[in-house]
Amino acid sequence: MVQSDLIKKLNINDFGPTKKQQTIIDHLGTYRFISYATPLCRFGCTFQDVHDRIRLDKKLRQAVFSIIQELEIDLNTKITSHLVEKYGPLCYQDIFSWCQTDGPNKYLKYDAVDRKIIEQEQKQLINTITYLSKSDKPENQSLLELSQHISLGELIHIYKLMSKRNRKEIASIYDCSANELISWMDCIALYRNCCCHNGNLIDIKIETRPVTPQSYSKYLFR
User: Fold this and answer.
1) What's the rounded Cα separation, in Å, for the pair 222 and 218?
2) Distance between CA atoms of 141 and 79, rounded to whole angstroms?
3) Spatial distance between the Cα atoms of 16 and 27, rounded to a whole number of angstroms
4) For the range 54-57, what are the long-range contacts, defined as Cβ-Cβ under 8 Å and sequence gap of 24 or more?
């Protein structure tokens, strides 16, 4: 009853709750329902309006996630293939050959990259790949073979580790700068997590907006 009282405080014109309404709330959870209802309640709404909005968000998540999956596969292929072609199939075991080795790395918030940092990143990368590969001897496997196990978050981290030249070469594939590509990948990862964990996508707010290319910024609605 306490949970129903929370919803009654909103401006939902026909909220009882009826038996059907209570069943829906019990399934969704009170606070999830309230999060979807709040934007509508400012103007007055019905219970069905809120329920329709929740179902619309579900369809939106499914559509967005389908697109993100295609993007994730392409990014994975481009980044891992680039490393293997330039540094060999076991390049993940020697990140000194392809990562940024000095200077600040703003993407990973390193004021100054040094050997100790690289060694730590090397150890972490091998541990992660070993865990993801589910193999007793991942050290004998090509990065291309292991790439199917690399998560989007880990893939983005690998890209941020790269030298400026490598980042630029991969970004050029997408006809953009490294700054643009990283901002897009970080945004994609955020939306992906929201979709995977049934978050409220329709009301999501981005604190750090992705870089918008000038060539098509006029086509975007803000």
Assistant:
1) 10
2) 17
3) 17
4) 54/28, 56/202, 57/200, 57/201, 57/202
The Cα angle at residue 141 between residues 127 and 162, in degrees rounded to 5 = 60
The predicted model scores a pTM of: 0.87
DSSP classification of residue 93: G
DSSP assignment of 131-157 equals HHHT-S-GGGS-HHHHGGG--HHHHHH
Q: Report how far residue 11's alpha carbon sits from residue 6's, in angstroms, rounded to the nearest whole number.
A: 11
- Work out the number of other CB atoms within 10 angstroms of the CB of residue 43: 8
pLDDT at position 7 is 86
pLDDT in tens, 84-139: 999 999 999 999 999 999 999 999 999 999 999 999 999 998 888 777 776 666 56
- pLDDT tens-digit series, residues 134-162: 666 656 788 888 888 899 999 999 999 99
- Find where tokens 């409220």 sit: 200
Q: Is residue 79 classed exposed, middle or buried when 0-12, 13-18 and 19+ CB atoms within 10 A define those classes? A: buried
